[in-house]
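REVIEWER CHECKLIST
Item 1: Sequence provided? yes
Item 2: Single chain? yes
Item 3: Sequence as submitted:
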Amino acid sequence: MNQLTIQCNALFLTKKELDKLRKLLKKYRTEHMILLVRDTEGIETQKCIGLIRCALKGVCGIEVLSDDDRPYDEIYEGITQWSEDVVFSLPKEAMRYAVEEEIMLDELARLFVKPKRWIHVQSMTRLTLQLAKQHGVDLHSARIAGLFHDCTKKIHGEPAVKLMKQCAKEHLQKPEAVWHQYTGAYWMEHVLQIDNTQAVEAVRHHVYGDLEEPLAMMVYIADKLDPSRGYDSSQTIALCMDDLRAGFAEVHRQQDSYLKETGVLG
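Item 4: Structure as written out by the authors:
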């Protein structure tokens, strides 16, 4: 049975997102959908769930679980494990289609990071998109790279080692703090089925900033200058908007100095 499992905040499901979701479910003949609703807010959430049920009526069976439901924890724990059936148990081509069409993309990206880091991801993605718009880079690629650049950030210890051995064993000697650029790129390609070389390579190089391609430079810049980090980076952001390569070089200078101080760079 084709089944789709999604965790979301029902209050953020707009009509546009529901239309996309309906199209996805029909296209891949999904028979059953489990909607895991977080951050419930009483009657308003129940109204939203009702709208979702109406929107998907006749498309597939739908089961809605909220924070208050006993089975929720068990299912939620299952989909947050780092395995290839995370979130979507649809055919690979369906996952690829969902990403390409940006179906609930924010909700998907939000699954992979802690709440505090989600603030960074959102802010950093906005800056990436601003840079992309300014310098004529594909906005879809920029959004994907921004949203998923930290998608394996919370994997630590033995699971991180195992994943690194799968995808980047030649970099195992590097500090664990930088591994997520390699494992994140691998996760994007092999779990999320993201067929976007530009975005994947930007993530693969976003910690060290060692790829001088436009989107890769933008992701590196936005990650380091993200306004939510709490320091004034406005002047450097302005430089990057005016001259991408000059701004990239300046961010590199600042970041290399920081990494040497913290011991990440020798």
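Item 5: Key structural point noted by reviewer: The two ends are 52 Å apart (CA to CA).
Item 6: Recommendation: ____
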